[in-house]
Design brief:
mainly beta, five-stranded antiparallel beta sheet, 14% helix, 38% strand, elongated
Protein backbone atom coordinates (compact mmCIF):
# COMPACT_ATOMS: atom_id res chain seq x y z
CA UNK A 1 0.00 0.00 0.00
CA UNK A 2 1.44 3.34 -1.08
CA UNK A 3 0.48 6.61 0.58
CA UNK A 4 -0.21 9.47 -1.84
CA UNK A 5 -0.82 7.53 -5.05
CA UNK A 6 -3.78 5.93 -6.80
CA UNK A 7 -3.71 2.13 -6.75
CA UNK A 8 -5.94 -0.86 -7.30
CA UNK A 9 -6.67 -2.83 -4.10
CA UNK A 10 -8.83 -5.87 -3.43
CA UNK A 11 -11.88 -5.99 -1.14
CA UNK A 12 -11.03 -8.42 1.69
CA UNK A 13 -13.90 -7.78 4.12
CA UNK A 14 -17.29 -6.06 4.24
CA UNK A 15 -18.41 -4.34 7.47
CA UNK A 16 -21.32 -2.08 8.45
CA UNK A 17 -19.21 1.07 8.10
CA UNK A 18 -17.50 0.25 4.79
CA UNK A 19 -15.12 -2.29 3.29
CA UNK A 20 -11.53 -3.24 4.08
CA UNK A 21 -9.10 -3.34 1.18
CA UNK A 22 -5.69 -4.97 0.90
CA UNK A 23 -4.64 -8.38 2.16
CA UNK A 24 -4.82 -10.55 5.27
CA UNK A 25 -1.77 -8.76 6.74
CA UNK A 26 -2.35 -5.16 5.62
CA UNK A 27 -5.73 -3.49 5.41
CA UNK A 28 -7.19 -0.05 4.86
CA UNK A 29 -10.79 1.13 5.25
CA UNK A 30 -12.89 2.53 2.43
CA UNK A 31 -15.76 4.35 4.24
CA UNK A 32 -19.31 3.20 3.52
CA UNK A 33 -20.40 6.38 1.70
CA UNK A 34 -17.75 5.72 -0.97
CA UNK A 35 -18.36 1.99 -1.41
CA UNK A 36 -20.07 1.02 -4.71
CA UNK A 37 -23.41 -0.64 -3.92
CA UNK A 38 -22.68 -3.87 -5.81
CA UNK A 39 -19.12 -4.50 -4.62
CA UNK A 40 -18.20 -7.92 -3.23
CA UNK A 41 -15.24 -9.52 -1.43
CA UNK A 42 -12.52 -10.26 -3.97
CA UNK A 43 -13.45 -7.34 -6.24
CA UNK A 44 -10.71 -4.86 -7.26
CA UNK A 45 -11.24 -1.11 -6.80
CA UNK A 46 -9.04 1.89 -7.58
CA UNK A 47 -8.48 4.19 -4.58
CA UNK A 48 -6.18 6.92 -3.29
CA UNK A 49 -4.58 6.51 0.15
CA UNK A 50 -4.06 9.36 2.61
CA UNK A 51 -4.43 9.94 6.36
CA UNK A 52 -7.60 11.21 8.02
CA UNK A 53 -7.90 13.76 10.84
CA UNK A 54 -7.11 10.99 13.36
CA UNK A 55 -3.90 10.20 11.45
CA UNK A 56 -5.22 6.84 10.27
CA UNK A 57 -4.54 5.54 6.77
CA UNK A 58 -7.75 5.71 4.80
CA UNK A 59 -8.87 5.01 1.23
CA UNK A 60 -10.98 7.24 -0.98
CA UNK A 61 -12.51 6.91 -4.43
CA UNK A 62 -12.56 10.71 -4.72
CA UNK A 63 -10.09 12.19 -7.19
CA UNK A 64 -7.25 14.16 -5.53
CA UNK A 65 -6.05 17.25 -7.41
CA UNK A 66 -2.41 16.24 -6.85
CA UNK A 67 -0.64 12.92 -6.21
CA UNK A 68 2.87 12.02 -5.07
CA UNK A 69 5.43 12.98 -7.73
CA UNK A 70 3.03 15.28 -9.61
CA UNK A 71 2.52 19.06 -9.62
CA UNK A 72 -0.72 21.03 -9.35
CA UNK A 73 -1.95 24.56 -8.73
CA UNK A 74 -4.12 24.50 -5.59
CA UNK A 75 -6.08 27.23 -3.82
CA UNK A 76 -5.55 28.14 -0.17
CA UNK A 77 -8.67 27.17 1.80
CA UNK A 78 -7.46 28.56 5.12
CA UNK A 79 -4.39 29.41 7.20
CA UNK A 80 -3.36 28.50 10.74
CA UNK A 81 -0.58 28.82 13.29
CA UNK A 82 1.69 26.29 11.58
CA UNK A 83 0.95 26.96 7.93
CA UNK A 84 -1.78 26.91 5.30
CA UNK A 85 -4.43 24.40 4.24
CA UNK A 86 -5.04 23.70 0.55
CA UNK A 87 -8.12 22.45 -1.24
CA UNK A 88 -7.07 19.27 -3.03
CA UNK A 89 -10.47 17.75 -3.61
CA UNK A 90 -10.59 15.52 -0.51
CA UNK A 91 -12.50 15.86 2.77
CA UNK A 92 -9.39 16.75 4.78
CA UNK A 93 -7.49 19.77 3.43
CA UNK A 94 -3.81 19.38 2.52
CA UNK A 95 -1.32 20.97 4.95
CA UNK A 96 1.32 23.37 3.60
CA UNK A 97 3.81 24.18 6.40
CA UNK A 98 5.31 27.67 6.65
CA UNK A 99 8.79 26.23 6.05
CA UNK A 100 7.65 24.83 2.70
CA UNK A 101 6.26 28.16 1.45
CA UNK A 102 8.39 30.18 -0.98
CA UNK A 103 6.22 33.21 -0.14
CA UNK A 104 3.63 33.61 2.59
CA UNK A 105 0.19 32.66 1.28
CA UNK A 106 -3.26 33.72 2.42
CA UNK A 107 -6.80 32.42 1.97
CA UNK A 108 -7.85 32.55 -1.68
CA UNK A 109 -4.30 32.53 -3.08
CA UNK A 110 -3.20 29.96 -5.65
CA UNK A 111 0.14 28.17 -5.46
CA UNK A 112 1.99 25.51 -7.40
CA UNK A 113 2.81 22.55 -5.14
CA UNK A 114 3.86 18.94 -5.04
CA UNK A 115 3.40 16.33 -2.31
CA UNK A 116 5.94 14.90 0.11
CA UNK A 117 5.73 12.56 3.12
CA UNK A 118 6.87 14.25 6.34
CA UNK A 119 8.68 12.72 9.34
CA UNK A 120 5.33 11.68 10.84
CA UNK A 121 4.47 9.75 7.64
CA UNK A 122 1.79 12.25 6.65
CA UNK A 123 1.20 13.79 3.24
CA UNK A 124 2.06 17.49 3.08
CA UNK A 125 2.48 20.08 0.33
CA UNK A 126 5.57 22.06 -0.63
CA UNK A 127 5.99 25.08 -2.90
CA UNK A 128 9.69 24.20 -3.35
CA UNK A 129 9.16 22.55 -6.72
CA UNK A 130 12.34 23.55 -8.62
CA UNK A 131 13.74 20.00 -8.77
CA UNK A 132 10.37 18.56 -9.83
CA UNK A 133 10.05 20.64 -13.01
CA UNK A 134 10.76 19.21 -16.45
CA UNK A 135 13.37 20.50 -18.90
CA UNK A 136 12.06 18.94 -22.12
CA UNK A 137 9.60 21.66 -23.13
CA UNK A 138 8.52 21.91 -26.81
CA UNK A 139 9.16 25.66 -26.86
CA UNK A 140 11.78 27.60 -28.79
CA UNK A 141 13.04 31.19 -28.81
CA UNK A 142 10.32 33.86 -29.30
CA UNK A 143 7.46 31.46 -28.53
CA UNK A 144 4.69 32.93 -26.37
CA UNK A 145 4.07 30.89 -23.19
CA UNK A 146 1.98 30.97 -20.02
CA UNK A 147 3.21 30.00 -16.58
CA UNK A 148 2.88 30.49 -12.83
CA UNK A 149 5.47 32.17 -10.62
CA UNK A 150 6.53 29.77 -7.85
CA UNK A 151 9.55 31.54 -6.33
CA UNK A 152 11.62 34.75 -6.50
CA UNK A 153 15.29 35.47 -5.89
CA UNK A 154 17.10 38.79 -5.43
CA UNK A 155 20.15 37.14 -6.98
CA UNK A 156 18.69 35.26 -9.96
CA UNK A 157 15.26 36.70 -10.79
CA UNK A 158 11.77 35.20 -10.92
CA UNK A 159 11.21 31.44 -11.20
CA UNK A 160 8.32 30.32 -13.41
CA UNK A 161 6.73 26.96 -14.14
CA UNK A 162 5.62 27.15 -17.77
CA UNK A 163 2.41 25.14 -18.31
CA UNK A 164 2.76 24.34 -14.57
CA UNK A 165 5.50 21.82 -15.37
CA UNK A 166 8.50 23.24 -17.32
CA UNK A 167 11.45 24.97 -15.64
CA UNK A 168 11.88 28.65 -16.57
CA UNK A 169 13.41 31.86 -15.23
CA UNK A 170 12.88 35.56 -15.80
CA UNK A 171 16.50 36.72 -15.30
CA UNK A 172 17.02 39.54 -12.82
CA UNK A 173 17.85 42.04 -15.61
CA UNK A 174 14.49 41.34 -17.29
CA UNK A 175 12.29 41.58 -14.18
CA UNK A 176 9.82 44.46 -14.56
CA UNK A 177 6.51 45.13 -12.89
CA UNK A 178 5.12 43.72 -9.67
CA UNK A 179 5.73 40.01 -10.18
CA UNK A 180 4.59 37.85 -7.24
CA UNK A 181 4.53 34.19 -6.29
CA UNK A 182 1.25 32.62 -7.41
CA UNK A 183 0.79 35.07 -10.29
CA UNK A 184 0.00 33.62 -13.72
CA UNK A 185 1.91 35.43 -16.46
CA UNK A 186 2.16 35.56 -20.25
CA UNK A 187 5.78 35.69 -21.36
CA UNK A 188 8.12 35.29 -24.33
CA UNK A 189 10.92 32.73 -24.52
CA UNK A 190 14.20 34.62 -24.92
CA UNK A 191 16.53 31.63 -24.70
CA UNK A 192 16.52 27.84 -24.41
CA UNK A 193 19.52 26.77 -22.33
CA UNK A 194 21.65 23.71 -23.07
CA UNK A 195 20.03 21.90 -20.15
CA UNK A 196 16.55 22.64 -21.57
CA UNK A 197 15.56 25.32 -19.06
CA UNK A 198 13.87 28.41 -20.48
CA UNK A 199 14.71 32.09 -20.07
CA UNK A 200 11.65 34.32 -20.29
CA UNK A 201 10.72 37.97 -20.60
CA UNK A 202 7.39 39.57 -19.83
CA UNK A 203 8.31 42.27 -22.35
CA UNK A 204 7.56 41.85 -26.05
CA UNK A 205 10.10 42.13 -28.88
CA UNK A 206 11.48 45.67 -29.20
CA UNK A 207 9.16 47.09 -31.95
CA UNK A 208 5.95 45.96 -30.24
CA UNK A 209 7.31 46.82 -26.78
CA UNK A 210 8.27 50.31 -27.97
CA UNK A 211 4.66 50.97 -28.99
CA UNK A 212 3.45 49.71 -25.62
CA UNK A 213 6.02 51.77 -23.69
CA UNK A 214 5.28 54.95 -25.68
CA UNK A 215 1.57 54.58 -24.90
CA UNK A 216 2.44 54.01 -21.23
CA UNK A 217 4.57 57.21 -21.10
CA UNK A 218 1.72 59.25 -22.58
CA UNK A 219 -0.67 57.85 -19.96
CA UNK A 220 1.80 58.68 -17.16
CA UNK A 221 2.22 62.25 -18.44
CA UNK A 222 -1.54 62.71 -18.65
CA UNK A 223 -1.75 61.75 -14.98
CA UNK A 224 0.95 64.29 -14.13
CA UNK A 225 -0.30 67.52 -15.75
CA UNK A 226 1.10 66.56 -19.16
CA UNK A 227 4.73 66.14 -18.17
CA UNK A 228 7.46 63.99 -16.62
CA UNK A 229 9.79 65.75 -14.11
CA UNK A 230 12.95 64.31 -15.72
CA UNK A 231 14.41 63.65 -19.18
CA UNK A 232 16.12 60.75 -20.93
CA UNK A 233 19.35 61.93 -19.27
CA UNK A 234 17.99 60.73 -15.89
CA UNK A 235 19.73 57.90 -14.05
CA UNK A 236 18.61 54.31 -14.69
CA UNK A 237 17.72 54.05 -10.99
CA UNK A 238 15.35 57.04 -11.13
CA UNK A 239 13.67 55.76 -14.29
CA UNK A 240 13.23 52.29 -12.78
CA UNK A 241 11.86 53.74 -9.55
CA UNK A 242 9.41 56.14 -11.23
CA UNK A 243 8.30 54.10 -14.26
CA UNK A 244 9.49 50.53 -13.65
CA UNK A 245 11.31 50.59 -17.00
CA UNK A 246 14.91 50.17 -18.04
CA UNK A 247 16.70 53.31 -19.26
CA UNK A 248 17.11 51.74 -22.71
CA UNK A 249 13.37 51.07 -23.03
CA UNK A 250 12.61 54.58 -21.74
CA UNK A 251 14.90 56.20 -24.32
CA UNK A 252 13.38 54.15 -27.14
CA UNK A 253 9.87 55.17 -26.12
CA UNK A 254 10.87 58.84 -25.80
CA UNK A 255 12.48 58.64 -29.25
CA UNK A 256 9.28 57.20 -30.71
CA UNK A 257 7.16 60.00 -29.19
CA UNK A 258 9.62 62.68 -30.37
CA UNK A 259 9.51 61.31 -33.90
CA UNK A 260 5.72 61.36 -33.82
CA UNK A 261 5.78 64.97 -32.57
CA UNK A 262 3.83 64.17 -29.40
CA UNK A 263 6.37 65.48 -26.87
CA UNK A 264 9.15 68.01 -26.42
CA UNK A 265 12.19 67.69 -24.18
CA UNK A 266 12.96 70.72 -22.05
CA UNK A 267 15.95 71.27 -19.76
CA UNK A 268 14.73 69.12 -16.87
CA UNK A 269 11.41 67.63 -17.99
CA UNK A 270 9.50 66.06 -20.85
CA UNK A 271 6.30 67.78 -21.85
CA UNK A 272 3.37 66.69 -24.00
CA UNK A 273 2.71 68.88 -27.03
CA UNK A 274 -0.75 70.34 -27.36
CA UNK A 275 -2.65 69.29 -30.47
Amino acid sequence: MKLGVKQVLTVVKKVDFGVYLGSDTERVLLPKKQVPHDIEVGDPIEVFLYKDSQDRMIATTNEPKVTLGKLAVLSVADTGRMGAFLDWGLEKDLFLPFKEQTAKVKKGDNCLVTLYIDKSKRLCATMKVYHHLKTDSPYKKDDEVKGIIYDTSDEFGVFVAVDNCYSALIPKKDVYGNLKVGQVIDARVTDVKEDGKLDLSVRKKIPQQMDKDAKYLMEEMQKNQGMLPFTDKASPELIKEQLNMSKAAFKRAVGRLLKEGKIEILENKIKMKKN
